[in-house]
Amino acid sequence: MNLDFLDATLALLCAFAFLAGFIDSIVGGGGLIQLPAMLLLLPGVPVPTVLGTGKVSSVAGTAAALRRYMGQVPIRWRAVGVAAVTAGVFSFVGARLVSLLPSELLRPLVLGLLVVIAIYTFWRKDFGAIHAPRLPERKEPLYGALIGLIIGFYDGFFGPGTGSFLLFAFVGLFGYDFLSASASSKLVNVATNLTSLAYFAYTGQILWYIALPMAACNMLGSTLGARLALKQGVGFVRVLFLVVVCGIILKLGWETFKPV
């Protein structure tokens, strides 16, 4: 393959990785930018290898965003930690089951849930504006485990919108503001991504010469995105959350109802 073509392809992939990291660090949904770009620009590469290569970038970017949020916004480590561990375990379970069940069955259900989330968030102007944890501290780990089980399994089995679902759960169920929910969701995302990455690395399905430059760009985008979120506050995160959720709805809607 022509070296100039390889350089141009890698440059484009790095640009998409940067944009994905920027968006994902604030409200999730970076995979909807990065993965389609990789599938388009790496047409001869097997899909599992594309997924494995992308996971390196995702883990690096999510970890960078989490590091930026730490110390700047409140994170309830006990509850979120339980959610992260549980999500990591059930993400692996979901990934193992994905070959046994048609993931297309989930698409209409997920689409409906996202529409409800978007309408509710738009309607409730004060939703996620104030950080006021509403659960008793002793119950937070239990609810964290439940969130980790459900969303972790979903992430391993299907995936699109995982970050947005986490964000909504931490705001709606736990009473966090959008900024704290975004930071908390990053810890859970790190766990689910690490689980997937370990599997892909073990099976040798990572193109490291592509993964490492993309990871560096994703980290840069994530750091800048988290910095912007901290500077602009919960109102900015709320608006971007609605934009991303609507984008996911349009994507899933097209895939569900497009003409055959």
From TrEMBL:
Keywords in alphabetical order, please: Cell membrane, Membrane, Transmembrane, Transmembrane helix, Transport
Q: Which GO terms describe its cellular component?
A: plasma membrane
Report if keyword Oxidoreductase is assigned: no
**Quick check: keyword Cytoplasm in the entry?**
no
- InterPro entries registered for this protein in UniProt: TM_pro_TauE-like, TSUP
| Short name of one Pfam family | TauE
Q: What is this protein called?
A: Probable membrane transporter protein
Organism in which the protein naturally occurs = Hymenobacter metallicola
